[in-house]
Amino acid sequence: MTQTSTQDTPVAADPVTPNLAHTNMVGFRTIIIREFSRIIRIWGQTIVPPAITATLYFVIFGSLIGSRIGDMGGYTYIQYIAPGLIMMSVITNSYGNVVSSFFGAKFGKHIEELLVSPLPNWLIVAGYVCGGILRGLVVGGVVTIITLIFTHLHVYNVGVVISAVLLSSIVFSLMGMINAIFAKNFDQISFIPTFVLTPLTYLGGVFYTISLLPHWAQTISHANPILYMVNAFRFGFLGVSDVNVGFAYSIMIGAAVVLYVACVWLLQKGVGTRE
Amino acid sequence: MKALSFRGLTKTYKNGVQALKGIDLDVEEGDFFALLGPNGAGKTTAIGIVTSLVNKTGGKVEVFGHDIDTQLAVAKSCIGLVPQEINFNQFETVTTILINQAGFYGIPRKVAHERLEKYLNALQLWEKRNAVSRSLSGGMKRRLMIARALMHEPRLLILDEPTAGVDIEVRRTMWTFMRDINAAGTTIILTTHYLEEAENLCRHVAIIDKGRIIENDRMSRVLRKLQTEVFVFNLRNPIAAAPALPDYQVVMPDDHTLEIEVSKDQNLNDIFSRLSAAGIEVLSMRNKSNRLEELFMRLVEQKPAATA
């Protein structure tokens, strides 16, 4: 390395109080762009696997087995499970995006880039959640396209479809963030998806209506938050639901608010991120 | 104006370790300030508190008059940090890292691209702008962290061992760059284990040990406090035994070398005269250690070699 150029000597910035609203706006946009770039950069991990999984579900449960099951809720079995499969991919990918991105940043210490910046904690959480939503929507979109290859998708209420998918994505992004905040190693970020998220998703009415279950199992199913998300989403497509859709929205909005406040509080306290 | 001010700053970790025991410190705007201390002395903890990576236990911190308890975002926007450990995303390119960093401080992309070019050229990394950061050499990674810290053109640049593990050529180039940005008005706080680096660059120095400031003054005044220095004399011919030099402490590490401790009220002419009289020819002479290093060691080891 030779002598440093002196003609480009940096100059200290003028001592002007920064416009924090502008800083926050640019910072928020930067986090979102960074998260979206990450999703695209590692598309082999983020987009392809859920597409393959969804295809297998449609081939096996929709075409092969589904054709022998008969109607469910007044629709063919493949039409009935389609919204649930789309929602399942949105939930798992929103969660997976935030948990892996935030924990990866913690592990590689580049989370410090954000922690030392003037961006407030509420905005950092919002930025990561938007990343989770983006991945949920991208993957949900890909799975929807795959669905259309196998069956016709009836849309009963587009507003419910969009709001249910957004709220579910927000809730699971925030859950992914809390997992990442507390995680100390990679085992701990795979534990929750494997042992909690996957069972809850499979038992959340993706593949069946809970009216098929015995009464006690129906009661237990009502304690599963994913049941409300899947059914609200399914209501948007088919107009049928195992639960009260208004109550489902209360659950989703309530969970989103509580989890968002919890994430901001945890960052503020420095749990898992600051000494 | 004070770029940085600590008052009664304390930090006690959950395991009970008291890393900072109520330190007071002021760094004036425009200064080049060395914050020195042995490993575990509390330097990185203090820096961590300023940059909000560590929660303080007590005391007050102000950055350009902005209290970090009430105006944290404004205080943080004044600071650029080059941490001790590599902490950028190793899977991103140099350009992506710098543009994102600028964005976190509210710098629009167009301005960020202009600054990126300026700092990558100044730090001789422009050719690597599209390289994935993990492919850079150790010295390049250190320079990338400096470029990253400068993207929002901070008024206070904190360099936590910026030249650790960097070869001497790159280190000297980085010194030139640091002098340039300090001359342009950026206040710099430097922590380093290369005390030659601190002595060459910094105008003020504070030494922290076991969570307390044990020295804090102008570099020149601190160095004058050194009461004795050890000089190494390389001899032309071998000698059988160390010469008797009353009033001096003489050590003979080998038959071609003498180490003589000289106090402030003694002089080298006297030593040379006595060595000549003893028939000993001196080929060359040097300080055994850098002066700041000597003082540092004596202060930390609490040897009576420095004035109060």
From TrEMBL, chain A:
Its main location: membrane. Residues 41-270 form the ABC transmembrane type-2 domain. InterPro entries: ABC-2_transport_permease (IPR052522), ABC2_TM (IPR013525), ABC2_TM_bact-type (IPR047817), ABC_2_transport (IPR000412). Keywords: Cell membrane, Membrane, Transmembrane, Transmembrane helix, Transport. Pfam families: ABC2_membrane. GO terms for molecular function: ABC-type transporter activity. The chain crosses the membrane at residues 47-65, 77-96, 122-151, 158-183, 189-213, 247-267. It is a multi-pass membrane protein. NCBIfam families: PRK15066.1. Belongs to the ABC-2 integral membrane protein family. This is Transport permease protein.
TrEMBL record, chain B:
One of its GO terms (molecular function) is ATP hydrolysis activity. InterPro entries: AAA+_ATPase, ABC_transporter-like_ATP-bd, ABC_transporter-like_CS, ABC_transporter_ATP-binding, P-loop_NTPase. Keywords: ATP-binding, Nucleotide-binding, Transport. Residues 4-235 form the ABC transporter domain. Signal peptide: none annotated. It holds the Pfam family ABC_tran. It comes from the Bacteria. This is ABC-2 type transport system ATP-binding protein.
